[in-house]
Every structure is written in structure tokens, then in C-alpha cells.
Design brief:
The chain has helices spanning 5-14, 18-39, 53-68, 117-130, 146-153, 172-176, 214-231, 267-277, 292-303, 319-325, 352-370; strands at 72-75, 81-84, 99-104, 134-138, 161-167, 180-186, 188-197, 236-238, 242-245, 255-264, 283-285, 288-289, 311-314, 329-335. The protein is an alpha/beta fold. The strands form 2 sheets. Strands 1, 2, 3, 4, 5, 6, 12, 13 and 14 form a 9-stranded mixed sheet that branches. Strand 1 (72-75) and strand 2 form a beta hairpin.
Length: 371
Amino acid sequence: MRIPLARRSLKAVALRPQRVLALYAPPVRILERLDELYAIGGGPGANRPHGSAAEDEAHRLAASWLEEAGLEVEVDRHGNLFGHVPGSGPGSGPGPRPVWTGSHLDTVPRGGRFDGALGVVAAIEAVERIGAGSVVAFRGEEVGCIGSRALVAAGGSLPQVFLELHIEQGPVLADADVPLGVVTGIVGYARGEIVIEGRAGHAGTTPMVGRDDALVAAAGEIQRVRDAALAIPGTVATIGKLEVEPGGANVIPSRVWMSLDVRAPDLDRLDALIETIGFEPGYRVGPAQFGGSARQALRDAIASRDLPLVELASGAGHDAGILASAGVDAAMLFVRSLNGGISHSPDELSSDEDVALAVDVLADALAATTR
Ligand code: GLV
Ligand code: MN
Ligand code: MN
């Protein structure tokens, strides 16, 4: 039987001596909040897709935590949620430089407990702890960083520094036996669709020879997309959604719609993959590199705790990449994924101890960048 994280950690804390209890108390609140977010939308897994009532509910819950932390709550016209330490929000005049930390609250269908949610609850903890900066929860990260891209496109006010804590979603840190990693950059990616038209007909009376079955054609397309990515090293391509029309068990499919997600470490390979597959991306995000004072602050915070420094690239997209491409001094801290690095799945997991350490490092880096 799987014991919910919050209960496990409460039990562990109860067995620890007083001094250690004080050290672990804030992460217990984080784990409880992760549980509360996870419960929204019903199971199995996290179900808070962009635009759903569950995403709204998660934003309302996070807003209540921001208020509890004494932060000034703001929702921008794209639905992104902010919590500012009083005096550090937009329009508050000269003062500490604007530094944001956060992530997103939407999830894929049947997603994990940590993806996005960890970065938001950890941000609240870190900002409350150091008394500086702003928390942000972006909208619709899973469907193409809707909230952060809208903010940038509208010329909204951006921070000088953005720090995002996120679960790694892969096995690199676990394989290296280290709890945390600093992200070097994010792959470029594009999303689009493939539509195949065929001819509907009776499943029983239409001979096999001469059919124009759209789903059979789609099966060939799916393999062609897979082969295109295999032929360009370092790239990936995924068809994750399929809609078959008219959708009757006894009707030959007349139309198939497929989603397409392609990624590559650099623009040349991204363009080559798009061209080989031959589709028009609905949107396209170039690769982003992290550098500057934000990444250095994370490195310093890790070094000051005598942890090994592991730096790694991200194959997943993140709001930090959107802000970095818009000129923000952005950086990301990854916390080790367990369970073989599985993510976008209810089996996504990080340990309580790693989460606690990650929040400490985030708070240190935030304090250093707000100075
Ligand atoms: C976000 O999780 C992505 O699709 O990379
Ligand atoms: Mn995410
Ligand atoms: Mn995700």
C-alpha cells in the first residue's frame, strides 16, 4: 500500500528529536500542500488541465496560501497568480530588484504530484522565509507555457531574476546519486497536428481491398514520425493524442487528428525535424540557455552546503525557458526524481529529504539574488 507523502513525513518527524523537528517542520507544510493540490480534480494522479475548474481551484487555493503568508495577491490579465512581499510588487517604486520564483499549477491528465506544484509551494515557503521577492504560478504550462508566453508577448513587466524549482523528470540525478542539479538550458520544441482524411464505410460490407481507412494511414504516419526523430540524433517526437472520426466500432475511420510534439537541443536540429516530418507548428519555442547571476546563485547555494555540483540540460519545457528567452536572468534547480525518473505519471516521486534540501537551496539563492 502507498502511504501518502504527508503522512509518511509526519510519522518520520514524530520520531525525530526536537532539534531536527524544527529543521523539518517547514517541509511538512510543503508536503501537506502538495497533497492538497494532488487531491483536486480527483484521481488517479493529478488532473488539473489548463482551462479546467481544477486549475482554477488550485489557483484559488494557492492564493489563500499567499494571503496566509502575508503576501500581496495579484492576478494578471492572463490569469497568472502572484504573491508579492509588500513593497516589492509592480509599481512599488525603487526598492529591492524584482525577483520572482515559482512554476505552474496545471497538470497533464493523470500527472504527478510534483510537476509544477512543487515549484509553487516551495516558492511560497522560500519567499515567506526570507521576506523578499514574489511568488508566481503561471497558467497552462503543460499546453505550451500559455501564461508566461502571454505575459512576454503582451510586454508585461518582467522580473530581473526568475528562479524555478522543479522535479527533474528524468534519471540523471538519481544515477549520479545527488539530490539536486542546476539546469544549463532547455531544449527547443514545437507542437502541431497531423490530419489524415479517408473515406467512411460499413465495417462489415466494404471489402478490405480498396478501402480508404484514415486510421490505417495514420499508423504509417506515426511510424514515419518516430523514424524522423530516430534519424536526427538528440531529437524526440511524440504523437500523444489521437481523435478518430466518426468513432464507431463498425465504421471505417474517415478522419484522424493527431497531436505532434517535437524537441531538439538546438535550432538547426529542431528545424530539420520539423522539415523532415513536414508540418506547420502551431507554436515553436527556441532552446533557452541559463546563465548569469541566477544560475551562479544556485551553484553557490549548493556549494555552501557541501553538495556536489551537477549541471544538466532539461528535455522538458518550463516557464523559466520562456522568461530566459525574453532576457530575464532565469535559472532552474532540479530535485532528484525517484522511480527511475518517471514523470507525467502518478508514479512521479521525490523524497521528503530532497524536497527539504531543495527548498533550503532555493531560499538561499533567492536571498542572494534579492540583495
Ligand atoms: C512540460 O512538461 C513539457 O511538455 O515539457
Ligand atoms: Mn512542469
Ligand atoms: Mn509537465
